[in-house]
Amino acid sequence: MEIGETKEKVAIVTGASRGIGAAIAKKLAEAKAWVVLVARDRARLQLVAASIQKNGGKAWCLPADVIEEKQVREMVQSVVKRFGRIDILVNNAGVGYAAAIPETTVQDWDLMMNTNARGAFLCSREVLKVMKDKKIAGSIINIASLAGKKGYRHQAAYCASKFALVGFTKVLAIEGQPLGIRVHLVCPGGVNTEFIKRIRPDIPPETLIQPEEVAQAVMFLLQQPTRIATDEILIRRFSSEII
Ligand SMILES: NC(=O)c1ccc[n+]([C@@H]2O[C@H](COP(=O)([O-])OP(=O)(O)OC[C@H]3O[C@@H](n4cnc5c(N)ncnc54)[C@H](OP(=O)(O)O)[C@@H]3O)[C@@H](O)[C@H]2O)c1
Fold first, then answer.
1. Is the dihedral of CA 150, 122, 66, 214 positive or negative?
2. For 57-80, what is the mean pLDDT?
3. Which of 42, 23, 43, 40 is closest to 31 using CA atoms?
4. How far does the centroid of ligand 1 lie from the alpha carbon of residue 15, in Å?
5. Range of the domain at 34
6. Is residue 112 a part of any domain in this protein?
7. Per the residue annotation, which of 34, 158, 168, 195 is the catalytic one?
């Protein structure tokens, strides 16, 4: 399965060192994209890159912290220097911790807001500038959450950060449209990664969404005819409450 007409698209995936981001990176590489893997943990990024390369895919590790403006700018500049273009950005890097509001610390609030909302803003802004300057009709996909659509007990900071990301994505889509840049939102419920074990250990593991299923949704968005647009995909565990 290839994405669009050009065989070699250049895709950046943040939070690609494990979980959903690693699954998305692998699917993109299977679709013949050059995948730039971004996260803080270099060793884990290299493991993902090795597994992609073993299957004949192309991956490049660029460790960066999406919270840091300078690191994001340098990461995007490095991609442009090497490839001369960016076709796809997947803003997936994220953190989530559960706590009742009286127990929510300012540190955790700031970490979730900064990673989940500011990180996606910084990466989108830098990539948008490149796509605009180079007249690339690219795609930006933001991995939010059902926690960006609905409140969940003990997830105030996480929900606030994901609602912020959903709002940002709406405006990014509006500003991207006249430039031919397509912006999509993917909102999964509980996905079987290290993350869910921390924030929702109560969910029966057999009911969880698999990371590859979120990656499939991303590929569906990238493979749609350019005449139409699917702005949002919500994926929930079938046994969970309908939003
Ligand atoms: N799992 C779920 O149930 C679920 C449901 C809905 C939405 N989501 C969202 O899906 C995304 C991926 O979640 P996941 O379940 O795959 O979580 P995960 O397994 O904990 O992976 C999170 C990824 O984000 C990276 N990351 C975190 N902070 C970063 C930073 N400051 N800079 C760069 N990278 C950073 C991590 O890499 P490093 O630690 O190496 O930096 C890691 O690669 C998140 O945005 C999450 O909110 C998850």
1. positive
2. 98
3. 23
4. 5
5. 10-235
6. yes
7. 158
